[in-house]
């Protein structure tokens, strides 16, 4: 019957799609459900890139990287509370996941840098197209090619188990069909995080009460409850990431790559106050300490030309421009004279290759060309690090650290991969790698049954 499959995947973000395609390619019959009317989840909004080490793309650009270095950066970024076994999976599969996506038609040949990385390892499409939309599109096209049964407006409600505790299906609610049961040997939860649910967020971290969020409306965390009701243990739920640079004017998230490519952060007094490419938690905390709890990204036409995405911000009207820094200051109520001095001093650091004030490790270009731009930014809730506890086969575990047979988890709904703080570029890597793995494992499990 049409509602009986080997594997049902819940959520149509990068993790859910990777899981679906991978389970299919390992011989499983798959249904993918999504509660929203559209596919893609938050994955579709990801602007940064996909971190991976030791890739052909890096080699082609002469970038020296290693699995050890990516592990070290990821652990350090996560304040060393990441589950080392999961980080090992993330890192050791990262090249394979870039190759897997590339073989399916993705372009991840441009390699840039995001906060917390010691070398360039953020893989993204050439020309600066949004990585998330691209990756989701490629995965969607591949799911269509495989004729995978995808059901929108269909919410996963409850995991059903047999008397010995093995998963036997999922109760779902379709917008038109109402409640029905999908019979399956395995369920893969790929329901994403809960950053859009400020009630849940602020209960776990009161400092974030009333914060805006970058997330799509479906990021409410009901997958956490679905898993919890099935006996899943949770890990690190209290670690919630605020993205440091959400545009105050437009609510749009301004990618870290703007800083990575050369923008500086200044306060209303026209002064720098932080190493711009420090980890997200530190950058967010520093911005909240400034006058008005916001700061300005300052850059020029050379930075603008280096990153296509910036034209989108300009198009949205969130990046006012002027031909001198003093005029720019006037437009935005920043101390223009101080701003001019700050930029001149910063440019000497670019020349000498050493930031004497904040030890910023990358100084790609001076800010002195053509028009100048200012984007006012403030932190918003961006990513939830914690979630369902999984092992290194993406199997969901209960409080006794035993596997719940037939239940798998991948992506932001899980906890442990990113520890206390996720590095930019590690989410796409996480969802592709753990999605693939969950699909493969669930297909093998179903075959054995
Ligand atoms: P990831 O990056 O981990 O893949 P995303 O946020 O991109 O996560 O995708 C998760 C998707 O799961 C979103 O599209 C969200 O709407 C969907 N989702 C969340 N909860 C449910 C649910 N209970 N049933 C079906 N879909 C869900």
TrEMBL record:
How is the co-factor bound, per the entry? Binds 1 FAD per subunit.
Top-level division of the source organism's lineage: Bacteria
Parent protein range shown?
148 to 596 of 596
Q: Which family does it belong to?
A: Belongs to the FAD-dependent oxidoreductase 2 family. FRD/SDH subfamily.
Subunit annotation: Monomer.
Q: Does the keyword Flavoprotein apply?
A: yes
Identify this protein by name: Fumarate reductase
User: Which species is the source of this protein?
Assistant: Shewanella atlantica
> What does the record give as the reaction this protein catalyses?
2 Fe(III)-[cytochrome c] + succinate = fumarate + 2 Fe(II)-[cytochrome c] + 2 H(+)
Enumerate the cofactors the protein uses. Answer: FAD; heme c
What are the EC numbers?
A: 1.3.2.4
The terms describing its cellular component in GO are: periplasmic space
Any idea which UniProt keywords this protein has? Electron transport, FAD, Flavoprotein, Heme, Iron, Metal-binding, Oxidoreductase, Periplasm, Signal, Transport
What is a single molecular function from GO for this protein? metal ion binding
Q: For the FAD-dependent oxidoreductase 2 FAD-binding domain, which residue ranges apply? A: 6-427
Its localization reads: Periplasm
């Amino acid at each position: 019957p049409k509602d009986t499959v080997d594997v049902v995947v819940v959520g149509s973000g990068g993790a859910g799609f990777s899981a679906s395609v991978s389970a299919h390619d390992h011989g499983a019959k798959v249904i993918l459900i999504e509660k929203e009317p559209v596919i893609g989840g938050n994955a579709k909004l990801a602007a940064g890139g996909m971190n991976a080490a030791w890739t052909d793309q890096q080699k082609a650009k002469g970038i020296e990287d290693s699995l050890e270095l990516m592990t070290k950066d990821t652990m350090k970024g996560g304040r060393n509370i990441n589950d080392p076994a999961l980080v090992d999976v993330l890192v050791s599969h990262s090249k394979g996941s870039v190759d897997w996506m590339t073989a399916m038609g993705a372009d991840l040949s441009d390699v840039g840098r995001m906060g917390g990385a010691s070398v360039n390892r953020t893989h993204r499409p050439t020309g600066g197209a949004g990585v998330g939309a691209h990756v989701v599109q490629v995965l969607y096209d591949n799911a269509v090619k495989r004729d995978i049964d995808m059901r929108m407006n269909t919410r996963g409600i409850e995991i059903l188990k047999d008397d010995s505790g093995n998963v036997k299906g999922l109760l779902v609610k379709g917008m038109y069909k109402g409640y029905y049961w999908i019979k399956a040997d395995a369920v893969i939860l790929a329901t994403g995080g809960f950053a859009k649910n400020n009630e849940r967020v602020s209960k776990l971290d009161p400092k974030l009460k009333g914060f805006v969020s970058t997330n799509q409306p479906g990021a409410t965390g009901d997958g956490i409850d679905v898993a919890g009701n099935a006996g899943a243990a949770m890990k690190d739920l209290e670690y919630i990431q605020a993205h440091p640079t959400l545009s105050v004017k437009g609510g749009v998230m301004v990618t870290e790559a703007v800083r990575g490519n050369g923008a500086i952060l200044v306060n209303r007094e026209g002064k720098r106050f932080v190493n711009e490419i420090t980890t997200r938690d530190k950058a967010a905390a520093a911005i909240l300490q400034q006058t008005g709890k916001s700061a300005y990204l300052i850059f020029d036409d050379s930075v603008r030309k280096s990153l296509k995405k910036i034209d989108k911000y300009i198009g949205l009207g969130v990046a006012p421009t002027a031909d001198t820094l003093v005029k720019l200051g006037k437009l935005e109520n920043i101390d223009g004279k101080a701003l001019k001095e700050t930029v001149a001093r910063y440019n000497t650091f670019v020349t000498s290759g050493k930031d004497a004030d904040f030890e910023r490790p990358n100084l790609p270009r001076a800010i002195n060309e053509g028009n100048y731009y200012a984007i006012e930014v403030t932190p918003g809730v961006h990513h939830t690090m914690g979630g369902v506890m999984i092992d290194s086969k993406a199997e969901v575990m209960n409080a006794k650290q035993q596997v719940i047979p037939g239940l798998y988890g991948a992506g932001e709904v899980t906890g442990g991969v990113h520890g206390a703080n996720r590095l930019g570029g590690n989410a796409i890597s996480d969802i592709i790698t753990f999605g693939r793995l969950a699909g493969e494992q669930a297909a093998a499990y179903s075959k054995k049954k």
